[in-house]
Design brief:
heterodimer; A: 352 residues; mainly alpha; three-stranded mixed β-sheet; two-stranded antiparallel ribbon; 45% helix; B: mainly alpha
Chain lengths: 352, 558
């Protein structure tokens, strides 16, 4: 291909990407959550680090017994994360400037627009109207894109199972919610550090608590806007960074981060072949026409030359023929004259 | 080109080396310098920058180092090396500097300081920087920074000075005039106004104002002159060095001496006699007469009977309440509607602002933060009844029990009013005891939700007794807890005080009721009540996570 052609194709491809515009995730500008969806508010100033929530989760979900029993409180010093047998863990933090430790429960935050559900191309993870993000093991292919996508690093995988591994994460006790029961951890907490209710009511309760006890809480409800909002909210008296929660996530929901790139795919797949193919075809046709013209010219020239040559040859031949005839005539004439002369000579002789 | 690859490789390696060097250098940089040491005697000589642009950074001067060096001959340092002493009055500024221009002042400093250093260097003694070593004194970021404790001249130290035989004033029997003075403008002199002594800070503020010297200068002049005189006469004296008053070690020593002094007093610290009342009535105006005049039809708040004597015992200095003057609060500063002189702080704010440390309510709130009190008073559910004004603003009653209004009070002499205040405070119910023991259940068994755990036996009487212990030693608590059932109100909240309060379960039931979003369910109500109070009172046992210490676990079969 010629360089100019290549460059022009590139330019066309690039310009066509501007045609698309920003695709919006799910077609909405900002998803506020399903109305009346449930959530949980965690108040770290109430949590005493007793791990009853972990024990209850383990029981309600029929998870295997852990190596270290739930009444061992020293394990919280090591900052654990959720794994294949623990949907939730409580970690102990020693924030600077405070004498007393602060405890934080970690589990799936049930985002309003989950990154995991967005990354899953088989729809194994789904956001339900109850607020829970649930997992369907039967369609999961085990690619673990959800684990990579989650900004909170929550989904865990059953690597130890060879034939039917599953992604393990908190389900907000969806089966229990559907029956009208409380999630296991919420029911077990003796201090009601976990408050259950509709997400809107929880936000109101959190704001009331913050207002009622000035100086006790930070004026920031974690999960109100983080990653577009989550159904699991946190209020705390210590900086979130100091209790292991990321503050650098921003408020853009995860699907929106990739939606513009993804929206380009149909265009790339649909538009580019047509457009670029057409351009290529036009270029090729032009080349072909030029080729043909050239060929024609060449053959014309050849034909003309040939015809000329033929004509010349014919002329030469005719001329040669003519000369030959003339020569023959002359020779004949000459011969005749000779003959005549001879004849006359003979005749003379004879006369004599 | 053949060398192309070689050059490229060399550049790449060079880049890596540079980056590596930066990384290694980064770690080293942080740990190399020791952090600057804070000392009380560090003075930055930077007064000259007010009048000129400095050519070099101000000098960081360590005063105690120099006094120690000068004292090396066995004698205490001679202050006149740098300071002027005129008529026994010691000037804390460098001598001959006052009023001089930049160039001259610089000369004086250099001559004095470097001159002395040079002399000592000639005698082979350890000394400071010499001529030419400019940046050894003029350091941009000094290693040592100034950290001074407050001078801490409070009531015990003051009493020691009052009592001291070494301090005398002319031929008077009281030595107040030795320090306490007032300025007479007409005479341009200082004189002692007997009976009108006040805190130095009422006139001498942190920075110099008009012709009034700043407090540090005034205090050093006053204190050090006297201390120096006593030291030179080999008498017992206060500290002369910076660290003697302003370092932690120095302050500890002073506290020790204070303690020793207190132990010599059989009846405790005597009251400062400044003509203050023992008990008095505080009116919502300067006095009863004014209150009557302003209020007209008895619209002013009732007066407060105030025990000035009791409050003197808890305050370290008069300034804790009398922060700008010893006059009455309402006299010209904190009037009902506020004045410019009082920064427009109204009387109500001055008396009641909870966040202030000076207001009545604010100071009481500070006391309530102690662990013995915080269990109930920091309880977010229902804070003890503080909204009732009656607690302090009592209606004064006449001898026949009739209500007295402002006009009646305005006509009474001051002594009568003070007597009324004393009587009112005397007759105030004091909450030294609560209900009789037989009326307080010894144990309460909570068996309402015994599923995983056995019923909890709650040592009710023990807890009430513990709370009473914390109350009865505090004057404030016994005065404020006006009834014998006030102590019950924090746990038995949101219900009228009674001997038979309602069960917790009558209000707390299933959790997460949207009608009462802030009200916990029964299980959380119990746990929050007990655990949070333990946390506020800083009790380590029973630990919140030690479930079986309050209710043992049920065995599997039960």
């Amino acid at each position: 291909m010629k360089r100019r052609t290549f460059l022009s194709l590139l330019g066309a491809a690039g310009t066509s990407t501007l045609v698309g515009g920003n695709a919006r995730a799910a077609g909405n500008d900002h998803f506020e959550g399903y109305p009346d969806s449930f959530g949980v508010l965690f108040d770290s100033t109430q949590c005493i680090g007793c791990r009853k929530c972990e024990a209850a989760c383990n029981e309600v979900n029929d998870l295997p017994q852990p190596e270290v029993p739930f009444d061992d409180l020293s394990i919280m010093e090591a900052h654990r994360r959720t794994d294949a047998a623990s949907y939730t863990v409580v970690n102990k933090y020693h924030p600077e400037g405070k004498e007393d430790p602060v405890y934080r429960k970690m589990q799936c935050n049930h985002c309003l627009e989950p990154a995991c559900a967005s990354a899953c191309f088989v729809k194994a993870l789904k956001k339900t109207p109850t607020g829970a993000v649930i997992y369907d093991e039967s369609v999961c292919v085990g690619c673990r894109y959800c684990m990579i996508a989650c900004p909170f690093n929550i989904p865990a995988y059953e690597y130890n199972k060879a034939f039917d591994p599953a992604v393990m994460k908190c389900t907000l006790c969806y089966p229990r919610l559907v029956e009208g029961k409380l999630p296991g951890c919420v029911k077990a907490c003796p201090k009601e550090a976990l408050v259950f209710g509709k997400r809107e009511s929880l936000l109101t309760i959190a704001r009331q608590k913050i207002q009622q006890f000035p100086g006790r809480y930070l004026e920031h409800i974690y999960g109100e806007n983080e990653m577009g909002g989550t159904n699991w909210l946190y209020i705390t008296g210590t900086a979130y960074e100091q209790i292991g929660m990321r503050e650098d996530l921003g408020t853009t929901p995860a699907p929106k981060l990739t939606s513009s790139a993804l929206a380009a795919v149909p265009m790339v797949v649909g538009l580019w072949p047509v457009l670029l193919g057409g351009l290529y075809y036009m270029n090729k046709r032009k080349d072909k026409a030029a080729e043909r013209a050239k060929e024609e010219a060449v053959s014309q020239a050849v034909a003309t030359a040939q015809a000329e040559a033929q004509a010349n040859l014919k002329q030469a031949r005719e001329k040669a023929e003519e000369e030959k005839q003339a020569a023959i005539k002359r020779e004949v004439q000459k011969a005749r004259e000779e003959a005549a002369k001879q004849q006359s000579a003979d005749n003379d002789d004879e006369e004599a | 080109m053949k060398n192309g690859k070689l050059v490229f490789g060399a550049v790449l390696i060079g880049l890596c080396v540079v980056l590596l060097a930066f990384q290694l250098g980064a770690d080293k940089g942080a740990g190399d310098k020791t952090p600057p040491q804070p000392r009380p005697d560090v003075i930055r000589i930077d007064a000259m920058q007010a009048n000129a642009t400095l050519q070099l950074p101000p000098v960081t001067f360590k005063h105690d180092t120099h006094t120690e060096a000068l004292a090396q001959n066995g004698e205490p340092a001679d202050c006149t090396t740098c300071h002027e002493v005129k008529d026994g009055q010691f000037d804390p500024a460098m001598k001959n500097i006052a009023g001089k221009e930049y160039a001259e002042a610089k000369e004086i400093f250099h001559d004095t300081c470097i001159g002395c250093h040079t002399e000592r260097a000639e005698k082979d003694k350890t000394t400071g920087p010499l001529d030419g070593q400019c940046r050894s004194c003029h350091v941009e970021k000094p290693r040592s920074t100034a950290q001074r404790q407050d001078g801490g001249f409070k009531k015990v130290l003051h009493a020691r000075h009052v009592d001291s035989k070494e301090i005398s004033f002319k031929d008077k029997d009281k030595n107040c005039g030795r320090c306490h003075h007032r300025y007479d403008e007409a005479d341009d002199s200082l004189y002692w106004a007997e009976g009108k002594e006040e805190s130095c800070r009422y006139c001498h503020k942190q920075t110099a104002q008009d012709d009034v010297e700043a407090l540090p200068k005034a205090a050093h002049t006053q204190c050090l002159s006297c201390h120096r005189g006593l030291t030179r006469n080999d008498q017992e004296s206060g500290p002369l060095s910076c660290q003697g008053c302003h370092s932690a070690a120095g302050r500890e020593k002073i506290q020790e001496h204070n303690q020793e002094y207190l132990e010599t007093l059989p009846d405790g610290l005597p009251r400062l006699k400044r003509g203050q009342p023992d008990q008095t009535l505080l009116f919502a105006a300067y006095n009863a007469t004014k209150a009557a005049a302003e209020s007209g039809d008895n619209q002013a708040m009732q007066p407060v009977a105030f025990d000035h004597e009791a409050h003197e015992q808890t305050a370290e200095t008069c300034r804790e309440c009398h922060h700008a003057s010893l006059d009455s609060c309402q006299d010209g500063c904190h009037t009902l509607t506020g004045t410019k002189k009082g920064d427009f702080t109204r009387l109500e704010q001055a008396m009641h602002t909870p966040q202030s440390e000076r207001s009545c309510i604010g100071c009481h709130a500070q006391e309530q933060k102690q662990p013995e009190c915080a269990g109930c008073h920091a309880n977010p559910v229902k804070q003890p009844e503080q909204e009732s004004c009656d607690q302090c603003h009592t209606t004064p009653k006449g001898p026949n029990g009739q209500t007295l209004d402002m006009k009646d009070l305005a006509e009474m002499p001051q002594e009568k009013l003070e007597q009324m205040a004393a009587d009112a405070l005397e007759s105030q119910p004091r909450a030294e005891t609560t209900y009789a023991e037989k009326d307080i259940p010894e144990e309460v068994t909570i068996d309402i939700m015994a599923e995983e755990y056995k019923p909890a036996t709650f040592p009710h009487r023990k807890i009430v007794n513990k709370l009473m212990q914390g109350i009865k030693d505090s004057d404030l608590a016994t005065a404020m807890h006006s009834g014998n059932n006030t102590v019950c109100a924090s746990c038995h909240h949101n219900s009228p005080a009674s001997k038979n309060p309602p069960k917790c379960a009558s209000c707390h039931g299933k959790p997460f009721n949207p009608d009462t979003p802030q009200r916990p369910g029964l299980k959380a109500a119990y746990h929050q009540q007990c655990m949070d109070c333990h946390t506020r009172m800083e009790l380590e046992e029973p630990a919140a996570t030690d479930c079986s210490s309050c209710h043992p676990k049920k065995d599997a079969q039960e």
